């Protein structure tokens, strides 16, 4: 799978990169020489975090109490990114989604024995205006759920080719010790 054998594409010639997405390549192929594939994120939104509640009766009143689970919302995140000129990122994501599900619609790939074979921690590095890492957000146990369309066009103001992908994840963690991350 030489299409992603050299994935040091951290900046893709973008000068205003502020969000850098990183996915371990082992999720697609354990034999790849690169550790991570990088995505120049145009934008993304951290979804809402809400506590689930249960109703409890107390002295004739109904009160809402926190439920025994932390989040009741859907744990998905969508990233909009700029594609590199060889479409390496899109091909990588397509191979990841193809590893999870057989495209003809017959369900989960029968060669998958464990969810750890198709999930990975996806990292987003937030950069300052000086390209210095300030925060890392980690989406644990992630897998790709949806690939967005890629529009190739010379019409209008289309100066870059971008796409999106949606991940499902189990939890989100934060790392503030990122001073030497990209050195």
CATH class: Mainly Beta
Sheet with the most strands: spatial strand order: 1-2-5-10-9-8
Largest sheet: 6 strands, antiparallel, barrel
Q: Total strand count, please? A: 11
The first-to-last residue Cα distance is 27 Å
Helix content: under 10%
Rounded to an integer in angstroms, the radius of gyration calculated over CA atoms is 19 Å
Describe this structure in words.
The strands form three sheets. A six-stranded antiparallel beta barrel has the order 1-2-5-10-9-8. 7% of the residues lie in helices and 40% in strands. It has one helix and eleven strands; from the N terminus they run βββββαββββββ. The longest helix is centred in the middle third of the chain and has 13 residues, at 88-100. β6 (101-102) and β7 form a beta hairpin. It has 183 residues and is mainly β. The chain is globular. The protein has a single domain, classed as Pnp Oxidase, Chain A, CATH 2.30.110. The protein starts with 18 loop residues before the first strand and ends in an 8-residue tail after the last strand.
Tell me the layout of helices and strands.
Layout: E1 19-24, E2 36-44, E3 53-58, E4 61-66, E5 76-82, H1 88-100, E6 101-102, E7 107-108, E8 120-127, E9 133-147, E10 162-168, E11 171-175
Short description:
This protein is mainly β and 183 residues long. The chain has one helix and eleven strands.
What would the keywords be for this entry?
mainly beta; 183 residues; Pnp Oxidase, Chain A
